[in-house]
Design brief:
The complex is a heterodimer of chains A (about 120) and B (about 110).
Chain A (H helix, E strand, L loop, with lengths): L3 E4 L2 E4 L5 E7 L5 E7 L5 E8 L5 E2 L10 E5 L2 E6 L8 E11 L2 E6 L3 E5 L1
Parallel strand pairs in A: 2-11
Antiparallel strand pairs in A: 1-3, 3-8, 4-5, 4-9, 5-6, 7-8, 9-10, 9-11
Chain B lengths: L3 E4 L2 E5 L4 E7 L4 E9 L5 E8 L4 E4 L2 E6 L4 E6 L8 E9 L5 E3 L3 E6 L1
Parallel strand pairs in B: 2-11
Antiparallel strand pairs in B: 1-3, 3-8, 4-5, 4-9, 6-7, 7-8, 9-10, 9-11
Classes of the chains: A mainly beta (about 120), B mainly beta (about 110).
């Protein structure tokens, strides 16, 4: 498995501000993923972050709104910029690990964001 | 476009019952399928991973099956316990790099 930590675990922010979420993994991984879970909804992929290259964003998500950094193989950040109440969600990072049954994904504990 | 559906959306059962949670997907060209558990306000815990070439995986009281041709997976929970109460999510990887496409989940409540 993988041990993944996220900071902060939760935050309450004012609209128009930005929040940077950190994701730390206990060992080196090639791909890291950022997901959003809106209230009462399932998870949606925001972007995939590979070390040394720009993140790949899914349809409906743009770099100006969700800039991502991936400075090394154990760490990534997601920034939620110019926040509005619609950005209130749980943000989760995940990593992929090869195992006996294939490439399994493991998730961090999530960051619960409330925008007022 | 791949879509994942989970039935039922919610389930409430007495302790000790054997349960079946269902997951279906529209495009059978999947790389793998993963079942997760999510406790309220928490992250996801991986339960089982089934590769596209496999038919089932087992872990303790959990058994997941995969019928790729019909686009279905089931998660079987034996002898349910109150500690099994959580939301169970099914997700598939298809269409290239390892992007997980999630179902909406089944919210399970097991009462003593």
């Amino acid at each position: 498995s993988a041990v993944i930590s996220q900071k902060p675990s939760r935050d309450i922010c004012q609209r128009g501000t930005s929040l940077t979420i950190q994701c730390q993994v206990d060992s080196q991984v090639t791909m890291m993923f950022w997901y959003r879970q809106q209230p009462g909804q399932s998870l949606t992929l925001i972007a995939t972050a590979n070390q040394g290259s720009e993140a790949t964003y899914e349809s409906g998500f743009v770099i100006d709104k969700f800039p991502i950094s991936r400075p090394n193989l154990t760490f990534s950040t997601l920034t939620v910029s110019n926040m509005s109440p619609e950005d209130s969600s749980i943000y989760l990072c995940s990593v992929e690990r090869p195992g006996g049954a294939g490439d399994e994904q493991f998730f961090g504990p999530g960051t619960r964001l409330t925008v007022l | 476009k791949q879509e994942v559906t989970q039935i039922p959306a919610a389930l409430s059962v007495p302790e000790g019952e054997n349960l079946v949670l269902n997951c279906s997907f529209t495009d059978s060209a999947i790389y793998n399928l993963q079942w997760f558990r999510q406790d309220p306000g928490k992250g996801l815990t991986s339960l089982l991973l089934i590769q596209s070439s496999q038919r089932e995986q087992t872990s303790g009281r959990l058994n997941a099956s995969l019928d790729k041709s019909s686009g279905r997976s089931t998660l079987y929970i034996a002898a349910s316990q109150p500690g099994d109460s959580a939301t169970y999510l099914c997700a598939v990887v298809s269409g290239g790099y390892n992007k997980l496409i999630f179902g909406a989940g089944t919210r399970l409540a097991v009462h003593p």
